[in-house]
């Protein structure tokens, strides 16, 4: 076909139109990319260039009940380098070496590493402020400073298993540190800069700093002075009896607040890696389960009184054993206790008497009270690693299992369960939920963010029944097996426990856990104290809770009540002294006397007592035990000196006990 000039013109116009459309499309695409997608593409590019150095906030502190720090983070600057940004590596190493106290070649090797970031350690890790300032003045390219923290413990291993430990990444691993990790951690920050693929800084781009947010502080219910008493008594028990382990708890029964909690073996949380994992990973006070022995009889007694199955004045004859399903279960006393009242059964911790109470209750009723008191289930304390304990199932409980349960054998419980159960008796029958964190505070301002409230779990027994049980337990201390816990004026009520330890289904010969649980004052309890000593080796060879554990709880309760300002009373049961008992001695009142007059009074009136003078000053500002109280012969009277009524000087002196 012949192409005419008109056809050529039309084709040319069409080509021009197509070219124009293509140009418009290209311009539209250019506008779309340059204008509409500019921000997105710029962001994508920056993301590929972006480098980030993490910043950690200061981990919150852990405080005692008075707000004193018992664990805190000591912050210190650390040095890191971005090797690709350090152009003069030799010169940089030469300048840093004398400041960091590191060999020049070691720093140079770090700067030559093919990594985005390297820490200049050890000299650049957690530097002093003076060292950090010298580095800042050099203003070296590619050298950055960040803050790092290390946990510090001003009171050493105080409450170590309650506090717990932290790892290298500032994370909580055990104890409060783990349970409240999200509270203590804070929010991480960063230093952001932009660099090429090889690590060189992008021209014209600076640094952006996102500050880290500090964690909040956690204030415990732990009373530091009471905690020190508990740990002092544990140390003494270890020295005297060389046990496998020891655990002790002090609780406020009105609220469920834990005022003291400690174990042996213990550890230094600042150097926890130097200890066996079982030592720092298991808080025996809430984790360990074992047969409680006679301390469990408090549950049987409470149930029998509540169900009107017994009157404490009723008579009971103990021939030294009790026949159950063809088995003869013996009393701990050879030949038995003979004729006695049920109050005497409690005082004497007589197994046959408690077996009789268990039979009167029956397995359904007894088990219901065991569960009401909180056994067989976690208490819900705000610490990780709590145990459940083990109970007989009702359908598998025969007469023999009912008998042994009634006097605390064949069941498995935790120390914290026993403390809370007696706390219910002390608190008018109300079982409380235990807790160790009092409140959470802002790290900077100290403002309370949230606060724990006492929680009633359930009413276990009536207030009138609780009063009867407390009266019986006070008689145990004044006249019965717990007489070694007696402290004149402090109305201690409690129960002894001596339990043989089972292993592989059989009881180990000679292996016992001795314990004592007590409350004071019996008429209006302010404190519960418990101690359990596993496998003690006394020099006298007598392994009974009343002999070994009872005096320890007596010491803890007396000292703790004095710390809380609870005054002695003459209204309680008076101890009936027997042949061989140590008769108490009156303590003179030294408070307010000059040092010279105090020494003179000590010489005149303290025969049989030891007087220890603590602190500095010219006047006795406090004493322990207080004046006009009674103590055992051979006890130590501590006099605290000062120039006024400085509670700080008293506290400092107490720390040295």
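^ structure tokens above, recovered residues below v
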């Amino acid at each position: 076909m012949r192409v005419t000039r008109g056809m050529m013109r039309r084709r040319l116009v069409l080509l021009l139109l197509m070219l124009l459309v293509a140009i418009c499309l290209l311009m539209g695409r250019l506008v779309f990319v340059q204008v509409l997608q500019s921000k997105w593409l710029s962001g994508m590019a920056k993301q590929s260039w972006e480098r980030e150095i993490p910043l950690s906030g200061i981990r919150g502190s852990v405080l005692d009940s008075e707000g004193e720090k018992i664990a805190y983070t000591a912050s210190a600057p650390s040095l890191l380098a971005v090797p690709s940004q350090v152009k003069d590596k030799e010169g940089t190493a030469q300048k840093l070496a004398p400041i960091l106290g590191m060999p020049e070649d070691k720093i140079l090797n770090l700067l030559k590493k093919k990594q985005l970031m390297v820490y200049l350690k050890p000299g650049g890790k957690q530097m002093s402020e003076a060292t950090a300032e010298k580095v800042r003045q050099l203003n070296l390219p590619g050298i950055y400073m960040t803050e790092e923290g290390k946990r510090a413990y001003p009171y050493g291993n105080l409450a170590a298993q309650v506090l717990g430990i932290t790892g290298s990444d500032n994370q909580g691993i055990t104890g409060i540190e783990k349970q409240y990790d999200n509270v203590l951690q804070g929010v991480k920050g960063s230093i952001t800069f932009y660099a090429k693929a090889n690590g060189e800084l992008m021209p014209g781009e600076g640094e952006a700093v996102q500050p880290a947010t500090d964690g909040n502080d956690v204030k415990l219910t732990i009373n530091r002075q009471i905690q020190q008493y508990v740990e002092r008594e544990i140390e003494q028990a270890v020295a005297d009896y060389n046990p496998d382990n020891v655990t002790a708890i002090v609780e406020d029964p009105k609220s469920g607040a834990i005022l003291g909690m400690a174990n042996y073996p213990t550890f230094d949380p600042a150097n926890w890696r130097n200890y066996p994992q079982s030592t720092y990973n298991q808080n025996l006070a809430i984790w360990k389960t074992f047969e409680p022995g006679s301390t469990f009889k408090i549950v049987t007694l409470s149930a029998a009184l509540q169900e009107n199955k017994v009157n404490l004045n009723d008579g009971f004859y103990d021939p030294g054993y009790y026949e159950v399903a063809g088995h003869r279960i013996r009393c701990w006393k050879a030949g038995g206790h003979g004729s006695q009242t049920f109050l005497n059964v409690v005082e004497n911790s007589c197994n046959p008497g408690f077996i009789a109470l268990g039979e009167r209750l029956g397995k359904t009723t007894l088990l219901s009270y065991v569960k009401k008191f909180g056994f067989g289930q976690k208490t819900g304390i705000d610490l990780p690693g709590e145990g459940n304990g083990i109970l007989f199932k009702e359908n598998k409980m025969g007469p023999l299992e009912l008998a042994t349960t009634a006097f605390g054998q064949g069941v498995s419980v935790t120390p914290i369960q026993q403390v809370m159960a007696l706390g219910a008796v002390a608190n008018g029958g109300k079982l409380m939920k235990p807790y160790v964190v009092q409140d959470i505070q802002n790290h900077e301002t100290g403002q309370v963010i949230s606060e724990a409230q006492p929680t009633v779990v359930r009413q276990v027994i009536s207030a009138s029944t609780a009063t009867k049980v407390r009266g019986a337990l006070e008689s145990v201390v004044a006249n019965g097996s717990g007489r070694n816990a007696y402290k004149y004026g402090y109305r201690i009520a409690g129960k002894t426990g001596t339990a043989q330890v089972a292993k592989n289904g059989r009881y180990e010969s000679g292996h016992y856990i001795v314990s004592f649980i007590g409350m004071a004052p019996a008429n209006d309890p302010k404190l519960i104290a418990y101690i359990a000593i596993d496998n003690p080796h006394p020099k006298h060879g007598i392994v009974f809770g009343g002999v070994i554990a009872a005096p320890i709880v007596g010491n803890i309760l007396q000292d703790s009540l004095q710390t809380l300002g609870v005054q002695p009373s003459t209204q309680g049961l008076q101890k009936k002294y027997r042949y061989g008992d140590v008769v108490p001695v009156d303590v003179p009142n030294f408070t307010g006397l000059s040092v010279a007059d105090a020494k003179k009074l000590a010489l005149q009136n303290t025969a049989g007592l030891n007087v220890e003078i603590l602190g500095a000053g010219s006047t006795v500002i406090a004493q322990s035990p207080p004046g006009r109280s009674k103590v055992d012969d051979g006890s130590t009277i501590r006099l605290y000196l000062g120039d006024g009524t400085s509670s700080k000087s008293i506290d400092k002196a107490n720390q040295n006990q």
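The longest helix spans residues 5-36.
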